[in-house]
Amino acid sequence: MAKRGRTQGRRRPVEDVSGSGQPVNLEALQSLVSQMLVVLGEKPSRNGLLKTPERVAKAMAFMTQGYQRNIDHLLNGALFPIEYDEMVIVKDIDFFSMCEHHLLPFFGKVHVGYLPNKKVVGLSKIPRIVDTFARRLQVQERLTVQIAETLESKLNANGVGVVVEARHLCMMMRGVEKQNTVAVSSSMLGAFRTQQQTRLEFLKLIRRGSVGDTD
Q: What is the pLDDT of residue 16?
């Protein structure tokens, strides 16, 4: 069974929204990968590994590109004034991230809902926000909170709900080696935290095959 929880406690500022903006030093990464291969007992000079340090460096730079992304730039021109106060949901957003404890991937789906407060965000920007934080070294719980607090802050939303469902290779390939375990985390802010009916509506809608489905 997946473990389900909601963030509790006092509100805190959005963590690491802007990113560092520093370019990745690919040469330094390649050197580190070469050293790692030697420590593991391999020969970086053998035919099959000649290009491996370069490939790994490029792959790591791609999988952590969220550090170079800026949320304000991403949202520039994508916030629209509108008199609409019903729930907006974008669900089943695929994501891939890297566990900061073992540098192994975890991946799954993100479901996002918010209650607008006189403005909405372009729907394509929500998956981009997810990717911005997912493409960093992460833990699932922090990823969940960062997405929720960013949306609440940038939209001044009346409420935000985020649910993340993920499989972790650090649990599947090593350690307990459980292949079918899914970790579930959630962050409920504003009306999603204080109003049970709002929270339950959100959780019900993200479980349906589509928003228009009937019971």
A: 52
pLDDT value at residue 214: 45
Catalytic status, residue 111:
no
Which one of the listed residues 140, 146, 149, 152 is annotated catalytic?
Answer: 140
Does 115 have pLDDT greater than 90? Answer: yes
Our answer to whether residue 100 is catalytic in this structure is yes
**For residue 81, with 0-12 CB atoms within 10 Å meaning exposed, 13-18 middle and 19 or more buried, which class applies?**
exposed
| Same domain membership, residue 56 and residue 140 | no
109 and 174 assigned to the same domain:
yes
d(CA 201, CA 186): 15
One-letter amino acid of 9: G
CA 116 vs CA 18, 87, 107, 199, 208: distances in Å: 23, 7, 28, 15, 22
The number of distinct structural domains making up the chain is: 2
50 shares a domain with 100: no
